[in-house]
Structure formats: structure tokens, C-alpha cells
Amino acid sequence: MRIVTQHMSRCWRIEPGARDAQSLVVGIKVQMNRDGSVRAVKITDSSRMAADAFYRSAAENARRAILSCQPFPLPIKRYEVWQEMRFTFNPSEMFGG
Amino acid sequence: MNNSATSFVSAVALVLAVALGSGVPARAELNVDITQGFVEPLPVAITDFYAETLEESKTGKDLAGVISADLERSGLFRPIDHGAFIQDAASLRKGPRFSDWRLINAQALIQGSVEMQPDGRLRVNFRLWDVFAEQQMTGLAYFTTPSNWRRVAHIVADVIYKRLTGEDGYFDTRLVYVAESGPQNRRVKRLGIMDQDGENHRFLTAGNELVLTPRFSPTTQEITYLSYIGEIPRVYLFNLNTGQQEVLGDFPGMTFAPRFSPDGNKVIMSLADNGNSDIFTMDLRTRGVKRLTNHPAIDTSPSYSPDGRRIAFNSDRGGSQQLYVMDSDGGNVRRVSFNQGRYATPVWSPRGDLVAFTRMSNGEFYIGVMRPDGSGERMLTKGFLVEGPTWAPNGRVLSYFRQTPADSRGRVTSKVYTIDLTGFNERELTTPIDASDPAWSPLIP
To answer: Is residue A32 less than 8 Å (CB to CB) from chain B?
Structure first.
């Protein structure tokens, strides 16, 4: 879904100096409303959230990116396709990895 | 019998239905990979800390000012101008109106209050909010003497930095450095010390004797440095709490390039006799000396890894001055720098992932970093003369000094700088006079 990735690239702030920044891959489940706003957002790896301060920081940052990016410009006709999304934030490409 | 078999089957069916239905939607989720973002400081709103009286209000404003300056100088945060704020400090006490803060794109909100206690102490508390998730991220209260407000501000800034980045802070720290004055041929060099933001500056030595290469203990408020007895350099210890100075050991030759071990119990340094220098450690309690290298080449500038198991140093044993890493017992020596030029003063990051160094190539100096195995080498800054890298205790920021070539009147200026390990956000650290050879303290206990 290129429209979503393009939209998100303007909202996702990356912290390149964090320790092992390229390995901080974050999964987030999102439930969407029809108007493109976010109904619910959940960071999937809650155990790593509790155990790893770097991961928590990266995950909360990714969540902020989703929340600050709404509403998403998505076609209402295909709502059933995008009403539940699973985002994977992977910064490794931005570090040339 | 038949009945119970039926109920068992239906129980299994029910479990299956629950498993299928629990949180798993009937339709497939849309998977979206996000691989592109941008690098920019995080916009944060830091409100003046609320207070009832005029005097407390001034402290509240000063606290917010120092916290804001700390976060801004790190290069990771962009404090939003107060003029843009919609919600005022008084109504903020009842809770943030998140939509007001989202409107000015504040990603995080910091509020606090200041209150003088009947016993004369100051109570400072603060809260950090995630504006978009509408959640409190952390909140703490501190009691302190009113004159200590600046330190509390640094401690609060460290808590905010850690909560937002995952990394320990480094604002409640100091730097010791060599303060320089006078003409080049009669330079007076004494030890100076200041907070990491340049405040609370003072001199530690009078300037009668030349001082060089101060290094902080990673565990105590002690400094080791080099000074001269006559023409001979000696390694000294300086206790910041007592002001006491002492010579470390009595050796026939020169001792130089001292640095503490990560546990603060040893000093590792070079000892030179008859023109050959090798690396030794001295146990600070027993004063026992141990030789680690024994090579006709010049081995110097040793620096421990934070786990104390390895040591980086430089040596010309391969023909030119390069960086080497060995085990802490002196074994398993391997070269790690291979690019053009000469390499010096390796400094192991407190985070353990990088070694900073000075490199001289094609008539220019560079401050760079590489992984301890020599891979991933990159230069952070360069100049006519840049030298003496030192890490902030979180291993995220480096300080070093930069000297200009002599001007038409033969004057040289030397200044201390800081830079983020990504190579961005290079800043001068203002000192009252010329400055060289900074050394960053651990977090103040």
C-alpha cells in the first residue's frame, strides 16, 4: 500500500544515533475508522516494551508517528481492506542495511 | 456415557471456536512495511514550572530554561517557542488539553511546579506527557536546597532524555579541561572545571606547573592528569572533593597518558625508559605495577573497554602509528586501523560499541569512530588541529578541542567542542579563556 508508506514517511521520525538503531524493528497493530482516523493502536511486542528501554523508545516513537499522521488518505470504498493494519517499522534501509 | 461423550465433543468445539475468534479478525490484516522516515529533532513543549509566589515563579522559569537548553543542545529535541503555547500554566495544573498541544505539533509536553517547603527546602516536581498517545510517560518530585536548583534541572533533563530516547542522560555531568593563557612560548596551563553546559566554571590549579591530559575516574570524583616535576612528566591524582593532589608512583623514567580502569581501581598509562615506552597498570590500592606490553616500538594512549576485558592503544610497531586492541592481560594483540594516515588516542565508548580516535592524514586532523574490531570507521569532524576525544558517560556525545593555525601576530586559539556521534550537532562549549584536552565526568553521584 504505497499511499500509506508515503504518507507515513512524512511522520516517522528516526533516531539514527540510538544503540543498534538498525535492529529496532517495531510492529504495531492499528484499527482504523472509515474517515481515515485511528480507532485503536497497539504495540505488539509488549514484553520487549517492558524489558528494553531502547525498544520502548523506538516503539512509542513509531506509535506517535501513526497517531500524528492521521487522518490517512485512504479510499473509503476499500475500507474492509485497510480497517485493520499491521505496521512494521524497520529503519535498517535508512542506515544502508 | 453417551451423554458425557457428547458434552466432551462440544467442549472441544467450543475451545476451537474461542481460539479462532479470540482477537483474530475474520478478514486478513493489511501488512504495511514502513522503511522510510526522516531525521529531525523532536518538537517538545517545556512550560515554565508553576509556582504561587513571585520568587518561586522565577525559579520555575529558570528550571524550565535550563531543562530546555539541555535538551536543545543535545540536538535531539526542539523546544517550541513559548509564544505558540495555547494552554496556560495555571489551567495545565488541572491536566493537559492534548488537542491544544497537538495543534502546535508538540510531541511531548513537560510541565512542573515549584513550592518552598516550611523547612526551607524546595519541592520541584514534573510530569512528561506523550501528547499524541495522551499518556503520562513519567513524573517525579525532588526536594533540594534552593541554591541547588540548577542541578535539579539537569537531573530532570536527564530523566526526560532517558524516557524519550532509551539512553541514559548526560546533563548532570561536568568537564575538566586544560585552561590556557599567555604567549605560545610561555603558555600557562591549568586545570579548569565546569558543568557540561559551561556554568559553574572554576580553576582547580594555580598555573605554576604545566598540566596535561586530565582524565576523569568513571566511578569517583577523581581526576588523573600529567604534570611536570622539573622536566620530567609525572602522573598525578586529584581528588575533587578534598582538593588533594598526589604523584602516582615513583618511576625512573617518564610516565604519561594515564587513564582510569572502568572500576576506577587502576590507572593504565605509559612508562618510558631509555626512549622506549610500554603500557603498564597501577593498582591504586596496593600500588602494584603490572607490565602489559613489552615491545621495542612506542606503545601508548591505552584505554579500557567498559567491561574491563580489552584495551585499545596506539603503537608504531607496524611501521606507522596505528590503533591496536589487546586483552586486558596484554595478550591477543591485533591491529584494528588500516586506512591512510596515522591514528592516535583511542578512547573506548562507555557504551562499548565504538572507539573514538584522532587521525592525521594529508595534513589534516580528524576525530573519528570505529567499531572495536576496526569496522565501520567514519570521521565526525576535521580541522587544522582537532584532538583529544572524550565521551559523555552515555556514549552518545563526544567532546574534543579544536586549535586554529597561528594568525599574523602568532596567536593561536583553542576551543572545546561537542558533537553527536552521528557527526551532527557540533557546538562550541564556551570557556572564559582558551581551552584544550577536555575530559567528561561520569554522572554526578
So the answer is: no
